[in-house]
Amino acid sequence: MTSANPSLPLAGRAYLVTGGGSGIGLACATRLAADGAAVTICGRSTARLEEAVRKILADVGSGGDVRAVSADITVETDVQRAVAVAMEATGRLDGCVANAGGGGVPAPYHAQDSVEFLRVLQLNLLGTMLCVKHTVGPMIAAGGGSFVGMSSVAGILSHPYFGPYPVAKAGIEAMMRNAADEYGRFKLRFNAIRPGFISTEIMDGIPRDGAVYRSYLENTPMADVGRPEDVAHLARFLLGDEARWITGQCIGVDGGHSLRRGPDFSSTAEMIHGPAVMAGGMP
């Protein structure tokens, strides 16, 4: 579907962005709305979503079509409802940015809590799978579409003490490759983005004068951190016609971080669990 207005190349298209209330998700939604798309953001905090809608409209103008729906992506009926809301504006769905996810408390594997481990896997893997499950049908009905899964540099580089997070992100990449193979015949594309350190609210918790932050800079050739907009620009490209022949790919937005090694969270993990646990003792 091609827009008649070249200044709004995504006019008439509808997209769902999960975790759209802040950070990368908010930046992706803003970028899509700026190009004329009808964007629906979802998340668990109604107040945060409402503020995000106001911010997007302020940034792109009152003519943008932006709506929000409170949803937990690990709950299947919530995902179904979010997809239905995303289709209200145009009667179709052209794509999805499955951005919602997160990690847990840094810990070596022998100190991992199994309940917390499964929570992180469910949030990232199950949540992304449910988004795939319930967006495929509408995108096929629209004649094609694009799905962007949010991985991480942790999906390809070891991130000691991140426990389930690297496992989950690697799983998302495998899911995108398999989905690309399964649904290519329907003109559906599936790709993953691998952000490195992006300056979001979550990453603001890492002290800028500490060893952890320093390890990020030392392992990033460009010696800096990224912005949410850096990821949003790639997401917009992958969702548009310009990327019509790109599928099953995992693309880094990391300033070159993936060329080196993961960050050093050993000081954080030791502060939480103590030196005895870090030396291999049981908690």
UniProtKB/TrEMBL annotation:
Which UniProt keywords are given for this protein, alphabetically ordered? Oxidoreductase
Q: Name one Pfam family in it.
A: adh_short_C2
Q: Which Gene3D superfamilies match?
A: NAD(P)-binding Rossmann-like Domain
Q: Name one GO molecular function term.
A: oxidoreductase activity, acting on the CH-OH group of donors, NAD or NADP as acceptor
Task: Work out whether the entry's keyword set contains Transmembrane.
Answer: no
Q: Which InterPro entries match?
A: NAD(P)-bd_dom_sf, Sc_DH/Rdtase_CS, SDR_fam
The transmembrane residues are none
Which SUPFAM superfamilies does UniProt cross-reference here? NAD(P)-binding Rossmann-fold domains
Q: Which organism is it from?
A: Denitratisoma oestradiolicum
Does this entry carry the keyword Oxidoreductase?
Answer: yes
What is stated as this protein's family in its record? Belongs to the short-chain dehydrogenases/reductases (SDR) family.
Q: What is this protein's record name?
A: Short-chain dehydrogenase
